[in-house]
Every structure is written in structure tokens, then in C-alpha cells.
């Protein structure tokens, strides 16, 4: 049986989840600015609760962004450290997809417009539709002003708004949802659910390919030196 660890620190939430012997264990807390201190102890506690060591893991899944620059880097640093040490592959998962998967799990909604507050008067944006229990991306993920956040071309039906982008900009977002939760944050339990689909499709990657996805290029690109 597959044993997977999932972790996420891309937003204010810090969470870990573990699949072992067909059972899911998870720990979730909202701990702004404490991710670096909390993440490893949370992983150790979860492994201890399951009665296994890290060597039992088949792969490690992580929230690859978009989200807070520092938070995404913390997750990738921990994941690469563990994956290299254990010689295990990694499974990167979009944080927008994780939001959508959580809305599916908790609200039963099948079309989700996920939005994370990107600061700088923009949102990280992605629209997802449930297909056989998995939230799949329609169109593309993007970072854009709220007024440009729309449903994908050709889509139909009602949308549920999920994420802090809705909490900050609901009145300005172009898409009009049938309902929303502007406080929803990604949860590693839903990241784990998406990772299980990816793992079954053979989408795991070598540890050195654990890369962040910021969407906003200039965040990760150093400025050219003055001439």
C-alpha cells in the first residue's frame, strides 16, 4: 500500500497529512510567520502517530504555490531535504487546486473559482471542475487584477468562490459566484487527495525538480544591476 506525506506552508495555514495503510492522518493550524518552526515537528508528530519512520514514505507531496514567497520556499526546502535524504520522489500540487479540492470536500461544490490574495492589488486565480473526485484546472492559472478574474471561456453553470482573494476583493472580481468562502485556506488533507491522483498517474518527479510556481515572474527574478 502506498504511503504518502503531504505538506503545505504557502499561505497563513501550516498543515501536514499522511496516507498510510489506507488511513489519512492530518494536522492543520493557522500559524502566520511560524511555518519554519512548526513544520518539521508537525511531520515528526504525524509519523509518530502513524507508528512509522520517514523511511516508510513512498513519496512526498507539497504545495508548490502560488502563495507567499517565503512560505513556498519553506515547503520546498523541507521537501527537498527529506526527499534527497530518503531518495524518494516528490509530487508538486497547485495551491489553487488544493483550495478547490477543499471546497469540494467541505461544501460539495463541483465548480470552484479559487483566488488567493496576491497583494499588490492582484489575485492568484484558477478555475476548477470536479471530475471523478478530482478538481481539475479549466483554462490557466494566472495572477491578475480582480477585475480581470473571469470564468474560463466556454464554461457554464454556477461557481463557488474559495480563498482569501475573495475575502479581499469579492466586490471587484468579475465572476459572480453562487456562494463563497473568503477565509478558506489550503489544507494538506486536500493536497494529499490530489497527490494520490497524480501518483497513480505516474506524475512524481525527482527531488531536484521540486520547484516553486509563483505566477508573478518578477517575485522570483532578481533585478538587473544598474548600468
Automatic annotation (TrEMBL):
SUPFAM superfamilies: Actin-like ATPase domain. InterPro entries: ATPase_NBD, Gcp-like_dom, T6A_TsaB. It holds the Pfam family TsaD. GO terms for molecular function: tRNA N(6)-L-threonylcarbamoyladenine synthase activity. NCBIfam families: T6A_YeaZ. Gene3D superfamilies: 3.30.420.40. This is tRNA threonylcarbamoyladenosine biosynthesis protein TsaB. It comes from the Bacteria. Residues 29-158 form the Gcp-like domain. Keywords: Acyltransferase, Transferase. Transmembrane segments: none annotated. The keyword Hydrolase does not apply. It comes from Ectopseudomonas khazarica. Belongs to the KAE1 / TsaD family. TsaB subfamily.
